[in-house]
Amino acid sequence: MAQPVDKQEPLTFRFADDGLVPNHPRWPMLVYPGAVPLPDDVDPAAVFEDIFGANGWGDSWRNGIYGFVHYHSRIHEVLGIARGAAEVRFGGDKGKVLEVKAGDVAVLPAGTGHQRLSGSADLLVVGAYPPFGTYDLCRGPEQHAEALRTIPKVGRPDKDPLFGGDGPLLKAWSEG
Asked: Which InterPro entries match (predicted)?
């Protein structure tokens, strides 16, 4: 049974193509600060896996966030901070550094650069993906031109990874 999440409007961040990281041409990155309550008596990663899975975001993993700039050009990604805290730069070298902590969720449209700058020793992140798209890991200038072609073709998910069919993602990522 998925834990209740605190319904909220996400923070939105838009990033321009910096020549290495394309970012998404239309859709913002969404951040839900403290959206997922994490009781002491449960596995915090399992809470995120249950919520994301219930909303159709699967292929989940548990780990951290790479310490190098990277993005995915063929799939969107959600990151749930299950434990600890980290400083993460989103959007590439000209992007924005945010501190994320346990309970926070970031939803990255395809193309959004991300890099862990620092993190607590106990950092644990759960990542997941919508039911369509192909995982890839892009980090070099030679991938930029192809990414510009593939990123806009990654369709909008049917559900917000936290709030399902009526979540803020559906409006923030309108097809317009």
From this structure: RmlC-like_jellyroll, RmlC_Cupin_sf, UCP019307_cupin, YjiB-like
